[in-house]
Specification:
The protein has two domains: about 45 residues, Orthogonal Bundle (Arc Repressor Mutant, subunit A); about 140 residues, Tetracycline Repressor, domain 2, CATH 1.10.357. Helix content is about 75%, strand content about 0%. The protein contains eleven helices and no strands.
Amino acid sequence: MNKRESILQATIDVVAKQGISDSPTSLIAKEAGAAELTLFRLFGNKRELLHQTYNEVARRFQDKCWNKIANIKDTEQKLIALFKVAIKHYRKQQSELAYFMEYLHTPDGLLLRPDIRYEKGEDVSEFPLVSILDEGKTQGVFKNLPLTNLVSLTGAPILMLLRIEQILKIKYSKSEVELLIQACLQAVKS
């Protein structure tokens, strides 16, 4: 792992444990085994470091999702498969989930949410959830609501299930997870 990758991973780990406001660059650099000057040379400032770390976390998840859902034609089945991939991925990558949740609740993170960027007219087709929901909306399979609403009805409950598991150190049963997935699907179906 090179210095850049070490710093990105340290950012994920430190922010996951301490939150963004309690994660100074000096601590992130120390966790990465790098000088703080190296961190600033590679990323410029903390804001850019957080942004690039978010992009890395999103890319890792996107790669895993697209590989798993690429051959699924039915939009509803694609959405169900995406949820299952997300649950499996973030149960293993708990620090990435915690980072993701922390960052998306900052002003910068909120503006990077794919559904908000979509509503502003940006091409965010690389993001699986937004892409699938847009496809379903276009086909008339999903409700004709703004993408921000569709994401709130689907992605948010899945992320909250995972975060609750993480915080309470529990694991919901397969049947409970299936019920939630079906509830999310029903929430957006036309």
